[in-house]
Design goal:
Blueprint lengths: L1 H27 L10 H51 L3 H18 L8 H20 L2 E3 L12 E7 L9 E6 L2 E3 L2 E4 L1 E6 L1
Parallel strand pairs: 2-6
Antiparallel strand pairs: 1-4, 3-6, 4-5
Length: 196
Amino acid sequence: MMKKETKATDTEEVKDQSAEASSEDIDNVEVIEPEIVDEDAQESADDATKELEKAHKEKEEYYNRMLRLQAEYDNFKKRTQKERVADRKYKAQDLATELLPVLDNFERALQVEPTKETESLIEGITMVYNQFKEAFVSQSIEEIETVGTTFDPNLHHAVMQVEEEGKDKDEVVEELQKGYILNERVIRPAMVKVNK
C-alpha cells in the first residue's frame, strides 16, 4: 500500500511544480504597453491626409476642366463643319459679286438696236451673255423675280414709288436693275419701282 501513497505524493508535487511554473511564467511575461504616438508622426499623417484631399480636389478640377475642353472642342468641330458647308455652299458669292456689273453691261449692250454692221457683234455678245447666265445657274445663282410681285424689302430695293391704276399696293411695277440670289442668300437686291 505504500507504493500507492508514494505515487499519490509524486503526482501532487508535479501539480505544485506546474502551478509554480505557470505563476513564474506569468511574472516573466513582458507587458507591452501601448506606444505613445510620436507627435511628428501624427503631424506627418495629418499632412499626408491633407495632401491626399488636395490631390482629390485637383483631380476633380482637372476632370471638370477636361470635360469643358472636350465640350468646347466638340462645339468647335461642329462650328467649323458648318462653316465649311457654308463656304462650299456660298463659294461663288465673291466671284459672282465681281461679275454682276459685267453681266449688267452685257445686258445694256444687247438693248442696242442691231444694224447690218453690228448684227454679228451683237450675236457674239449674246453668246457670251448666255454663257455667263449658264455659269451663274450652274453655281445656283438665280435672278430675283420682280415685276408683278409684291415688294419684299429682303429681295427688292425700292428707288421710286409711282401711282398706277390697275396695280396693287406695294406691287413692283418696273425693274431698274436685276437682283440675284445664291442658295437663298441675296447677293444683290433688285432695284425696282413700286406702286403706292
